[in-house]
Amino acid sequence: MSEPSLLAQLASWASQLDVEDAPGRVLAHLRSQLLSQLAAARAGYGHPLGARISQAYGSPLQADPERAAHSLAMATICLDFDDTAFAGHLSHSCVNVPLAYAGPLGLDGRRLATAILAANECAARITAAATLGPFRGQTAGHTHLAGAVAGRLRAESALTDTWVNALGLAFTTPTWTLPRGFFTTDAKLYTAAVPVRIGLSACDGARAGLSGPADVLEHPQGFLHRFAALPLPEEAVGGLGTLWYTETLSYKVHPGSAYLSAAIDCASELHAEVRELGDEGIAEVVVEGSLFTSGLDRLTRSESVGPHSSVAALNFSVPYNVATALLTGSLEPADLAPPDVARPERWALAAKVRTVHDPALSRAALLATAPLGQALRRAGQRAAGWAGAAGREAADALPPDWLAPADDFRWATKDLGARVTVRLHDGRELRAERRTAVGAAGSTDGPGHEELARRKFLRCGGEPEVVELVGNLAELDAAEVSRLVELALGDLGEGAMRRRVQTERPAPAGFDGGAADLGSTPLRTSEVMWDTAGLESAYDGLFRAAASRVGVGSEADGGAGGDVDRTLAHLALGDRLLADTARQVLDGAAPLLDNAAATDPAAIDALVAAADRAVLVELVRRNAAELVGLLARTPDRHRAADVRVRLVNGAGEELFSGTVPWGEIVRLRAEEQLPGHTDRINCCEEKAG
After folding, report:
1. How far is CA 651 from CA 574, 577, 592, 623, 655, in A?
2. Model pTM?
3. 8 A C-beta contact, residue 119 and residue 98
4. Cβ–Cβ contacts within 10 Å for residue 433, how many?
5. Which of 42, 330, 417, 603 is 20 to 30 A from 474, alpha carbon to alpha carbon?
6. Could you give the CA distance from residue 430 to residue 422 in angstroms, rounded to a whole number?
7. Cα(first)–Cα(last) distance of the chain, in Å?
8. Order of strands across the sheet with 654-661?
9. Which residue from 289, 338, 341, 344 is spatially nearest to 318, judged by alpha carbons?
10. Strands 418-424 and 654-661, bridge-based pairing
11. H helices present in 302-354, as ranges
């Protein structure tokens, strides 16, 4: 028998998915994602553009959930204040559709969280499979075909066949975003809203018995072959249940493109030094960024952007956003509307802003998980052809083709860094730089995503009680979910009809049973699994130390500190061996650990020669995630498993040969080896300083 289609595999898994199947850290991201998206909705509806959306399409709490989801998708995209993942701007469908259907379906918090999770995972995976193509980010409207279908059908507990048909119907008519309109006009609002309507319509059709092509993704005349220059079908179904795309989310603290976030952070940091000078005291502002930032700047400078431009044009303008943050210390939704947008001093300073491409920042960006790193690693040697067609900047920044894709996203990164230099008329220069934006995946020098989402929601006028309700999302009953939605969105969409949410309603027409109602399903139970908290904490400390040894952009330390490079190479090789042993323990094989390959000077030298420091850090992060991911799936009783161990030193001399319990090996890694290597890296930094 032939292998099931990609849609069949994905639907079979997602239709049975429960939020309890995911690790606690993934549920934490779901809570932050929901709260941050509610903030984006509040900001969007509160803007003059949002008022026009409400007038045309109604309130987010109107009686028709399909129309409510359409309105929400437009309001949350209008200020570019939504969060991003690898891959896709998920929340316009993955959060908004479950929210819109929460009342009609009487969803409790667990069912709402499950629907968001299923939508995230399906939408991100299909988007990732096509991410090496013409559409990424908000232009990838097809993200919301999957998000709308999965978000609604998981909330309705639909059968797998319904999922396959609905997805097949939806992906037969994907939207194709045109640059003309998207970057400069309000037409951008439809890039998420229209696919949401298509996806919801496909659900109606599938429930009524309409069939769609199950192989629409991989067929030679199907979606991936038309929407991807380099299709990556493995991304759609690889690591189901272990590779959680939800935890690749990055959270925006400013409205605007993620390609500008780090530059805005830098400008905000410099505000205190330039606020007394005003634009008159500044001679020039230079923004150095990756190919994503410089490319966006080239694209938007071809259009004349000014105080009367659309919100979309303002969102993508490097000069306006950086100038505003320099002069005010932040970038807020109000800065995208009168009277603030018309302030002449902002445009006078914006005229002095120029953008420069930094190849090192591009390399860091493509090494990171998002926006393209995971896809490039999945492509391997094939990525060179894609990058060559994309341009010289991409080809020069490609990571090595031997760097394997992640099979665990717990340490996912999004390193879209920037450097902002303000040159004053008196000859002084002020500079700020960041390797990654505040709130981006992998960022370690600011508040965590929970705190960032809380601040964002309250900053957008949200009720503190909503923060508390979202914090207990999985425990909320249907009435509490109803209250959450009313408090968060009930004062928005002026003049629109509010719906009265009931806690008990009959199943919608065409309901086909499927999985049992999650509200009455007991929590899934399993044996006690390995607690990886101590090991993860040790790696967190190591990554912070390693990150301090990798500079920003062109000033990265690529040659000094050979001891650091050798330590990182040794760690990467050692974790690779430990991951192999962990897999043997998990599979019930006779486990063996021989450290010769990790201590061999020739192997370490070869790896150092093949990879600069940034690559070495990424390799350590990737291998560590694989090891910890395997341990997290290992029953705790396997701590007692005997492992045959052979340890040698750098000269190849045997130091130990015998049997050691697997739990003791992992304990030594967490409590002695990793802290020791962290101290060694920090010591090298102090000597270098």
Report:
1. 16, 19, 21, 25, 11
2. 0.90
3. yes
4. 21
5. 42
6. 5
7. 63
8. 592-594, 642-648, 654-661
9. 289
10. unpaired
11. 311-315, 318-328, 344-350
